[in-house]
Design a protein that fits this description.
seven-stranded antiparallel sheet, about 35% helix, single chain
Length: about 525
């Protein structure tokens, strides 16, 4: 696509990368290279995405794991496909069962908030339907890094250390022992530049590769997972694992100024990003760094989140359809509610996420937007002994209030934060994009899309532009390089502006765009992380 700004208007040491034959962008350099190696061996973009995702469970375990969930948008042969690899609550996990343990809300850590993990099923499903190489070949780089080890990168080392310091003071008991044995083998977090290896990860990935995921859900690994969780008083059973498969879904979209912006439908929160864009598309927005632009973006996102938190849950139990929420009439109705000053929406408290996002493309036109997560960093803090399988804690988002739209029920999928994005124009793919990071994700999606379409920024500039994040009420976080005069002007409109020094609060994104006429790929990666665009 064409960019108005081929120079870089924001402070960064990185520039947009251009290539022709293939590209992989993600937050960990070795993982991106693993995907590129698969492309060079004859794999396609789907193979590269799987290889990168599997490698990230080893190379960035602070954000995702084998026991996590995943979502994907895949463009191939002129069509876009969606995959929902989030899992439901175990069949024995109920509000009464949790309350009987003395909880008044879903716990964050331990075996209780563990739902059925979907990531291994996502790898197997994508490989079987669209892959060109065997799963053994595709998972080989991840297995190699787990066996041989790798040195920690700076951002990875920072978050690993923070997690260890938190866990050593809060997590105790046999259900957490394997986490410390796996991720703090010397009774400390590995240092930046220090080599960490995990034979358990390697053995598990080999078994997943050899059985095309079957062992994880209906074999030896399923036995190990269900036995350990049962011994520790958890709910995830062998039957829950055996009955699970990732689900192919129809992506949802809104038309935004000549482009179609695509997301995975609920139970994911991609709907929130589309709701926000559906509101702002009716405004005459021309200038990026202006008071009115930021004010309208923030107010639109408040309304989008208010609707998202009110309605998004397992799609089988939603009280309103996505079509109704994304209609032009509803967008116009919500747009009319945005006034000159900040308003107080229905409040809730966002939590920090723990997620990896990757984008992959090949020279044949295949493109993948893929996201994978354990949630809140290392997830539940539970590792299945000897396997390296770090379990997510997605059940934490369930409500124990029976009247809440996202109330816990056996077999129900919870509101899910991770979302891959994709952009098309007419019948052509523009490409995959994403910004991971808990409730920052739909806000990042809106900002990246508008940076690209409204303001003509090239991929790296679109990612590097200063971000804001609405938190709750009128509170809005901005980055240190956010224009000071605009922050002050927003405050005069009633926004409670707070400068956040932690770049991790604003997510980590990747973009790959494809020129439909030349096939040239252009990619950007997150300057707030250890990210890289690997290309050829």
């Amino acid at each position: 696509m064409q960019f108005d700004y081929l120079y870089h208007p924001y402070p960064s040491e990185r520039q947009t990368v251009f290539s022709k034959k293939g590209m992989v962008a993600t937050s960990q350099p070795l993982a991106a290279q693993a995907g590129l190696d698969i492309l060079k061996k004859g794999g396609n973009a789907i193979d590269a995405a799987i290889a990168t995702a599997a490698a990230l469970t080893v190379l960035e375990p602070t954000s995702n794991g084998i026991g996590g969930d995943a979502f994907a948008l895949v463009w191939t042969n002129g069509s876009l496909y969606g995959l929902n690899a989030s899992g439901p609550a175990p069949s024995s996990l109920s509000i009464d069962a949790v309350k009987a343990k003395g909880h008044t809300e879903m716990p964050v850590y331990g075996v209780t908030p563990i739902t059925v993990p979907g990531a291994p099923s996502a790898w197997a499903k994508l490989s079987k339907r669209f892959g060109r190489l065997s799963l053994k070949e595709v998972l080989a780089p991840a297995i190699s890094y787990a066996e041989e080890g790798y040195p920690l990168t700076p951002i990875l080392g920072k978050y690993w250390s923070l997690a260890y310091e938190k866990f050593k003071g809060t997590l105790s008991g046999p259900e957490f022992d394997a986490w410390f044995e796996t991720f703090a083998p010397d009774h400390r977090a590995p240092a930046i530049g220090e080599v960490w290896r995990s034979p358990g990860h390697a053995a598990t990935l080999k078994e997943i590769a050899e059985t095309e995921g079957e062992s994880f859900y209906r074999g030896n690994l399923a036995d190990k997972i269900s036995s350990f969780i049962g011994e520790q008083g958890g709910y995830l059973s062998k039957e829950d694992l055996a009955s699970y498969e990732a689900e192919w879904v129809d992506p949802i979209s809104v038309r935004y100024k000549g482009y179609d912006v695509w997301e995975i439908p609920p139970n994911g929160q991609g709907l929130v990003a589309l709701l926000g864009l559906n509101i702002v598309k009716g405004f005459d927005i021309r200038e990026k760094d202006s008071l009115e632009t930021y004010h309208k973006q923030i107010e639109a996102m408040k309304l989008a989140f208010t609707d998202g938190k009110a309605y998004i849950t397992d799609p089988k139990e939603m009280k309103i359809t996505t079509e109704e929420l994304l209609s032009d009439a509803y967008g116009e109705q919500r747009r009319a509610e945005i006034k000159e000053h900040a308003v107080e929406p229905s409040a809730y408290e966002p939590v920090k996420g723990g997620t990896v996002y990757l984008a992959a493309a090949d020279g044949e036109g295949n493109m993948v937007s893929f996201i994978q997560s354990n949630y809140m960093g290392f997830g539940s803090g539970v590792v299945i002994p000897g396997t390296g399988i770090s379990m997510q804690n997605r059940g934490h988002d369930f409500s124990l209030d029976e009247t809440h739209p996202n109330a816990l029920k056996p077999g129900k999928k919870t509101y899910h934060t991770i979302i891959p994005g994709f952009l098309t124009k007419g019948n052509d793919a523009v490409g995959p994009f994403g910004v991971m990071g808990g409730y920052m994700q739909p806000q990042g999606h809106m900002q990246v899309v508008m940076n690209t379409i409204d303001f003509g920024l090239h991929p790296q500039a679109a990612l590097d532009a200063p971000r804001w994040q609405w938190m709750k009420g009128k509170k809005v976080l901005v980055e240190p390089h956010f224009p000071t005069h605009l922050a002050q002007a927003l405050a005069r409109k009633g926004h409670q502006i707070q400068v956040a020094v932690d770049k991790g609060a604003f997510g980590r994104g990747q973009i790959i765009w494809r020129d439909p006429e030349t096939g040239v790929l252009s990619g950007g990666t997150e300057s707030r992380a250890d990210g890289v665009v690997a290309s050829w």
